[in-house]
Amino acid sequence: MRVGVLTGGGDCPGLNAVIRAVVRKGVQEYGHEFVGFRDGWRGPLEGRSVRLDIPAVRGILPRGGTILGSSRTNPLKEEDGVRRIKDTLARQEIGALVTIGGEDTLGVAARLSGEYGVPCVGVPKTIDNDLSATDYTFGFDTAVGIATEAIDRLHTTAESHMRVLVVEVMGRHAGWIALHSGLAGGANVILIPEQRFDIDRVCGWVTSRFRASYAPIVVVAEGAMPKDGDLVLKDGSLDSFGHVRLSGVGEWLAKEIERRTGKEARTTVLGHVQRGGTPSAFDRWLATRFGLHAVDAVHEGDFGTMVALRGTDIVRVPIAEATARLKTVDPGLYAEVGVFFG
């Protein structure tokens, strides 16, 4: 069988580990051939592909990003998108497609598989860790590690100048990165999308820390919103999946804190730094296991499924189930860390 592989959405540490595992096991144990589609769903739309064999994936395990490239292309919004994909697969004699991505990429795979008969197997990828069907997604551990290290470094700068430092991390709908890195880095305030925040209360926590002769660190997810406000946006533009471009809440928060408390405040936006670089040991391990089990599903013809982590086991779940709802931070879990605020 010839098998196609694509990586969609934002880049993420561990993507290359999945590709490597899929190809290595698929070639060595099952005798399959592999084709990599370039730049996410744009590849099968435009028929752009490269050969994937064992020499092609040698040495890519520790590399960040993806050797196949990625994009946020939504083929369901392209003219004749489904037909063009099916024509590409037929022309290249592709019998199955391994789709590695997050909510949007897998959402397309679910529809192509369920409604149009395109044989897809999904692999979950998102640094936000917000796919409900899996305990963890690869990329999350690396992102948390990078954010934690940044917070550790910012403590000394905050203390040296006795100023507030606001750290903005990724997290559109889910605050997992903010929660984990904020707790691990000793932040004094953590703000997440699941809980609208009261700016007066935040300023109260900041003032309390200064009374203790301590310069506070505030960690805020990009999707966090004030109690009486809306999302802070870069601009009003939308991507092909209808998402607005976030980022800006950190700067807004720093200005409000400075205006209300009289204390100097600065912002650090980690942005794409969280996505880049070599994956952590855990993400290499998880991504590799996902790849191994994904190619098993392909070989067995178990299409329309996604591999997922449950405890220490890799299981298969319907892709449609995995994308039906997001995994967000439970209010009780958020309340646990509140003892460190202020």
From TrEMBL:
This is Pyrophosphate--fructose 6-phosphate 1-phosphotransferase. The active site is at D128 (proton acceptor). Mg(2+) binds at E103. Belongs to the phosphofructokinase type A (PFKA) family. Mixed-substrate PFK group III subfamily. PANTHER family: ATP-DEPENDENT 6-PHOSPHOFRUCTOKINASE 3, PHOSPHOFRUCTOKINASE. It catalyses: beta-D-fructose 6-phosphate + diphosphate = beta-D-fructose 1,6-bisphosphate + phosphate + H(+). HAMAP family: Phosphofructokinase_III (MF_01976). Non-allosteric. Its EC number is 2.7.1.90. Catalyzes the phosphorylation of D-fructose 6-phosphate, the first committing step of glycolysis. Uses inorganic phosphate (PPi) as phosphoryl donor instead of ATP like common ATP-dependent phosphofructokinases (ATP-PFKs), which renders the reaction reversible, and can thus function both in glycolysis and gluconeogenesis. Consistently, PPi-PFK can replace the enzymes of both the forward (ATP-PFK) and reverse (fructose-bisphosphatase (FBPase)) reactions. Pathway: Carbohydrate degradation; glycolysis; D-glyceraldehyde 3-phosphate and glycerone phosphate from D-glucose: step 3/4. Transmembrane segments: none annotated. The keyword Metal-binding applies. PROSITE patterns: PHOSPHOFRUCTOKINASE. It comes from Streptomyces phaeofaciens. InterPro entries: ATP_PFK, ATP_PFK_prok-type, Phosphofructokinase_CS, Phosphofructokinase_dom, Phosphofructokinase_III, PKF_sf. The record marks K125 as: Important for catalytic activity. Coiled coil: none annotated. It is found in: Cytoplasm. Its cofactor is Mg(2+). Homodimer or homotetramer. One of its GO terms (molecular function) is AMP binding. The record marks D104 as: Important for catalytic activity and substrate specificity. Diphosphate binds at G10. Residues 2-298 form the Phosphofructokinase domain. It holds the Pfam family PFK. Keywords: Cytoplasm, Glycolysis, Kinase, Magnesium, Metal-binding, Transferase.
